[in-house]
Amino acid sequence: MAIPDKNEPGSSLLQIQDLNVIYKTDEATVYAVNGISFELGRKETIGLVGETGAGKTTTALAIMRLLPEETGFIKGGEIRFQGEDLVKKSQPDMREIRGAKISMIFQDPMTSLNPIMPVGDQILESLEIHNSENLSKEDLNKRVDELLSLVGILPQRKKDFPHQFSGGMKQRIVIAIALACRPELLIADEPTTALDVTIQAQVLELMRELKEKLGTSMIMITHDLGVVAETCDKVAIMYAGRIVEAGSAEDVFEGEKHHPYTVGLFGSIPNLEEETDRLHPIDGLMPDPTDLPPGCPFHPRCKQCMDICREKMPEFYTSGEHRIACHLYTKGD
Question: Among 160, 186, 191, 276, which residue's beta carbon has the most beta carbons within 10 A?
């Protein structure tokens, strides 16, 4: 049997198994991520989709091991990156991994950059910390110029400060910083939320091009199913800290069976070919993460709720890679 090439597209890079994360304060315990599992192959992109409070950003912070020290805790599960469990890594070990092997584009480019530091120096800082090739200062500065050109910014502007750039250009600089050391995994936390539609399209196209050039795997965190359709190979729909549906993009967008929450998300998207007075929002609110309901967490909002939904957490119905956690499909098992 031939040994699979670890750099081949699809070969496993990241495996998350039964991950649980809580935030604990004197007043309450927030159950932010509750037993999620998914796998990401090399050169693949997975979209984590859900409303605010679904646990998407907490999942990303857990992978990066950037949870607040005093209040955020990984209570169980594994985060295996290149076969090694990041949960067991020390913080000095994680500092060697962050930036060099795993990078993150944070949600708001307006606050991600240091306002009193030229943007070129902020890119250079990452290169200096992870200078495994022992490049000279001159070579590192050339790399800064290359990175700015790569994201469509003139290298002559590297001495400018963040306030001298537009929102879209700030996001490009954040992307350049994240890609400085050519990480194998890039986590993008709603990278287009603060941008207008035109700039959003440009940034998504840029990220697609960079993925092709650099062969980087990506986790795209968003609430926008349109962004997912354009950029992702796999999709995981999150609700109340759980994955309620997961599969290939084709499974989620074109499959016949869906979780009622996924149906609700699609129903909330305006149809340009259909004249209507109102959108169709999902009734109700996300549950309180300090007091999650028994059974399926979506049952208080679900129009197809059954008695079993109020009492028992559903198992996954599986069809190939497509997984749906719903009693509608497992009640006869």
Answer: 191
